[in-house]
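STRUCTURE:
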């Protein structure tokens, strides 16, 4: 179980791309982009109030899906994901704002990749005992269909329990009418 800040990507099903791969696909309703992993405990107190105030200052923006990647590394893959292309660095700026607020409240963030932010959308988990080189060759042969931009309108505190993800609290960005 764990908590993280991020957003869901709905109305997308990539399971057909994963056929034949040694991957356990994520349910399409659980596709998400992690901005910051917090840990096993949900932030408490007025963190949500401060985040709501801070995140409404951010305008909605678009990101795009890139290629398939193996995480945490190609040599020891545990997750199959898609790169998130964020031309305006909106995710980096939001991550920084969240980190500053959590630090102000003394929340001990457990994100192991704190200095290595690489926006991505998790789509599956690698089965154990997979040859990383062979897996890399297989994903390189997959043709990714061109998809349109994804509009980021809301950041959520998300709770993960096994393969199930649920929104605990949501923070709307400011979107033009």
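SEQUENCE:
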């Amino acid at each position: 179980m764990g908590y993280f800040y991020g957003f869901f990507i709905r109305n997308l099903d990539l399971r057909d791309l994963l056929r034949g791969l040694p991957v356990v696909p994520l349910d399409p309703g659980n596709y998400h982009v992690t901005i910051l992993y917090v840990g096993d405990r949900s932030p408490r107190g007025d963190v949500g109030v401060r985040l709501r105030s801070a995140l409404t200052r951010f305008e909605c923006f678009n990101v795009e899906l890139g290629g398939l990647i193996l995480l945490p590394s190609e040599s020891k893959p545990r997750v199959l994901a898609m790169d998130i292309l964020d031309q305006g660095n909106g995710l980096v700026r939001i991550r920084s704002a969240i980190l500053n607020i959590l630090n102000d409240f003394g929340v001990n963030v457990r994100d192991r990749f704190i200095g290595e932010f690489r926006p991505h959308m998790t789509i599956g988990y690698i089965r154990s005992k997979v040859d990383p080189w062979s897996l890399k060759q297989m994903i390189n042969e997959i043709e990714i269909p061109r998809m349109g931009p994804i509009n980021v309108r809301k950041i959520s505190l998300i709770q993960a329990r096994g393969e199930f993800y649920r929104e605990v609290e949501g923070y709307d960005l400011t979107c033009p009418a």
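REMARK: The chain has a mean pLDDT of 90.
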